């Protein structure tokens, strides 16, 4: 009488295979999370650059008034706070009062940032980081003679300032990615200072 053998895994082989997969996953998941967070920051930084370019472009079409960029929680009015991660609106602001009036025109509504990330403004025309306005030359509107309108948009996640991204805007309204000019591992804003996260 001949015996027939069945092919398959033994219990020991199955346990060893699962253990090896668990060890590989333990090292792969954190680095995958890092890649996802880095890609999210990069995408959000690109969105900010695109929004600034759009606002400048629309402002350059005006004969009077400004284009205002501000934080919004409802997509219809400026929220009046510096937490731009809740959403952004861009609108033609005829009387430059940072309020969407009947004579004003809504140009773009941007939703909240994903991943719990933050977006803040340092400098520019903002009153404590609440808004930015572009005039009909595409320049950031300055409130004082000493202020040239330069500033920085800072995007942060829960890893803090060492992983943050930033887009600086010069006095003529041109956007450029912030760099670490002093070599300390933290990006510098438009004025050469280290950026910070809330």
Number of strands: 8
Helix count, per DSSP? Answer: 1
- At CATH level 2, the architecture is 3-Layer(bab) Sandwich
Q: Report strand %.
A: 15-25%
Mean pLDDT: 87
Q: Element order, helices and strands?
A: HEEEEEEEE
CATH fold name, please? minor pseudopilin epsh fold
Based on CA atoms alone, the radius of gyration comes out at 24 Å
Low-confidence segments, ≥5 residues, pLDDT <50? Answer: none
Category from helices, strands and their pairing: alpha+beta
* CATH class category label: Alpha Beta
Give the CATH superfamily: minor pseudopilin epsh domain
Fraction in helix: 10-25%
Q: What's the structural domain tally?
A: 1
- Give a quick account of the main beta sheet: strands, pairing sense, barrel closure: 4 strands, antiparallel
Broad shape: elongated
For the biggest β-sheet, the strand order reads 3-2-1-5
Report, as a whole number of angstroms, the end-to-end distance.
79 Å
């Amino acid at each position: 009488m001949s015996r027939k053998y069945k092919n398959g895994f033994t219990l020991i082989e199955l346990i060893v295979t699962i253990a090896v997969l668990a060890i590989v996953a333990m090292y792969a998941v954190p680095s995958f999370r890092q890649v996802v967070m880095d890609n999210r920051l990069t995408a959000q930084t690109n969105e900010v650059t695109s929004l600034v370019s759009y606002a400048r472009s629309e402002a350059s079409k005006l004969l009077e008034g400004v284009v205002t960029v501000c934080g919004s929680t409802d997509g219809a009015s400026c929220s009046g706070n510096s937490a731009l991660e809740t959403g952004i609106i861009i609108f033609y602001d005829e009387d430059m009062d940072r309020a969407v009036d009947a004579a004003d025109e809504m140009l773009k509504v941007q939703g909240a940032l994903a991943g719990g990330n933050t977006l803040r403004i340092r400098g520019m025309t903002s009153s404590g980081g609440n808004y930015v306005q572009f005039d009909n030359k595409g320049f950031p509107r300055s409130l004082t003679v000493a202020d040239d309108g330069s500033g920085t948009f800072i995007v942060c996640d829960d890893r803090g300032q060492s992983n943050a991204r930033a887009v600086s805007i010069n006095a003529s309204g041109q956007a450029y990615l912030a760099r670490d000019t002093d070599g300390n591992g933290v990006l510098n804003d438009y004025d050469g200072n280290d950026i910070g996260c809330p």
